[in-house]
Specification:
With 250 residues, the protein is an alpha/beta fold. It has a single domain (3-245), classed as Spore Coat Polysaccharide Biosynthesis Protein SpsA, Chain A. The protein is built from 8 helices and 9 strands. Helix 1 (16-33) links the parallel strand 1 and strand 2. The radius of gyration is 19 Å and the shape is globular.
């Protein structure tokens, strides 16, 4: 039986984490009823008291709860992968929500592919300090343009893929003081350059909260960039090829 390890990362989400736990539980149970084995991990990384209490009160007995002192989401996610036992791993943040069918559809979609991929929701519904929709791109689509990754991120951090992919390509630690951040953008570039497609799963969505003081907001405020991945070298090669194809001899 295919097994999924669902990982929820918590920090200072407070009472909102209670709603995320309900979403987490619903998606796990939906996957179980569709033939998957599912276990869960909650990671409390320097969490405040109210988040800690909310999660420990709401966590099912079957879920492992860890307290860590990384102060870094990337390290906390890698910690979750280290303790995961599933064939697949999927991430949820403690102030966000999965659609109930997420784990089921993501696993089935990955299993139907001829090679390993990274799965993302079809759409993110953004709420909180910003309200918008984020449609995830398909790197296998003929209209996909990898050059965009030199200036922006196509996919969010609530990814789903084979555990061995996360093990082979750990998420790089954020070093905002050194000028490096956006760990999800960096990881997306690394895995794409290694030939791993990033694909949206049809009929799935995530609800993602935007708030001041988040890691994303702190990264923007610090004016950081992603660490080197080779994406810029690839972009230069693609740009040269495109310019060459547009040059005509009279």
């Amino acid at each position: 039986m295919t097994k999924i390890t669902a990982v929820m990362n918590a920090h200072r989400e407070g009472l909102l984490s209670g709603v995320s736990i309900a979403s987490f539980n619903d998606a796990c149970e939906h996957a179980r009823t569709n033939g998957f084995e599912v276990d869960g991990i909650f990671i409390l990384d320097r969490s405040d008291d109210i988040t800690n209490q909310t999660i420990r009160h709401g966590a099912p007995k079957s879920v492992q709860v860890f307290e860590t002192d990384f102060g870094d989401l990337s390290s906390a996610r890698n910690f979750g992968v280290h303790h995961a036992t599933g064939d697949f791993v999927g991430f949820l943040d403690a102030d966000d929500l999965w659609s109930m069918n997420w784990l089921t559809e993501a696993a089935q979609f990955c299993l139907a592919q001829t090679k390993k991929i990274v799965a993302h929701s079809e759409v993110n519904v953004i709420f909180g300090d910003a309200e918008n929709l984020w449609m995830h791109a398909d790197s296998e689509d003929e209209d996909f343009d990898p050059l965009f990754l030199t200036i922006g991120n196509y996919w969010d951090s609530m990814s789903f893929t084979w555990r061995e992919v996360y093990e082979k390509y750990p998420i790089q630690k954020n070093e905002l003081k050194l000028g490096y951040g956006y760990e999800d953008w960096h990881w997306n570039c690394v895995t794409l350059l290694e030939g791993i497609p990033h694909r949206p799963v049809p009929d799935t969505l995530h609800f993602k909260r935007r708030r001041g003081g988040s890691l994303l907001a702190s990264s923007a405020d610090s004016d950081v960039v992603i660490a080197h991945t080779g994406i810029y070298e690839m972009a230069r090669e693609l740009w040269a090829l495109r310019q060459g194809s547009n040059t005509h001899v009279a």
